[in-house]
Amino acid sequence: MEEYFxxxxxxxxxxxxxxxxxxxxxxxxxxxxxVIDIHCSIDYExxxxxxxxxxxxxxxxxxxxxxAGKNVVVMQGRFHYYEGYSAREITFPVRVMKLLGxxxxxxxxxxxxxxxDQEIGExxxxxxxxxxxxxxxxRGPNLDEFGPRFPDMSEPYDKKMISDALEIARENNIKxxxxxxxxxxxxNLETPAEYKFxxxxxxxxxxxxxxxxxxVARHMGIxxxxxxxxxxxxxxGRIEEVTLDxxxxxxxxxxxxxxxxxxxxxxxxx
Length: 270
Description:
Elements: H1 2-14, E1 21-25, E2 37-43, E3 61-67, E4 70-76, H2 87-90, H3 92-100, E5 104-113, E6 123-131, H4 159-171, E7 176-183, H5 192-201, E8 205-207, H6 211-219, E9 224-233, H7 244-268
Parallel strand pairs: 1-4, 1-5, 5-9, 6-7, 7-8
Antiparallel strand pairs: 2-3, 3-4, 5-8, 6-9
């Protein structure tokens, strides 16, 4: 536990307000920062025991400030299993955010869409997930201070926030899908056969993040809302070669709608 408190102490020396909400921004989705009244920006490398982002499109900064008058702590850049980190290292910041005082967690990611009615640049609100990682952030001795040995996962994503987000989307004429997100290790994208396999398992989208953070948040009793930007398609007959630039372009197209939903959703939290 000591390493968590070391990180918390350092962050609190820069930001004295208790954050109500934590936000994790995914690949190409860092412009939410533009709507934040920023109090301070901390490089990950300056925070004791914090991992460091190695992906070029992840800024690697912890942003503390306000959205709609609500105190938030925002990860501008996350960590992935494919970077060489363990599941516990990936989720270290989520536990730190819990100790800082967050009440709810908001997560965004870029994903490959598996639904025939999905299009690149659209959004999918997560209702459930499938964990296809070979590691689990709760493996090993349980941290009883954070939660139980066998946490319940019957509601991985908060139903009230999902309902509110769908209402916000309708009010703003934003097309959104809902569905199940499968998380794999990466970093390579899936083969056509793998897309088909993951779809057969019951997933509507596939990506390389979010699930480890969700597991740790739910272990600690934190409600989670997550949204994916569909940056490529894994649908038979529609699979094309994908580059990072194309994925970032799709994320950039969708980001204003994602930001609108996040900000309105945070505004509605009591």
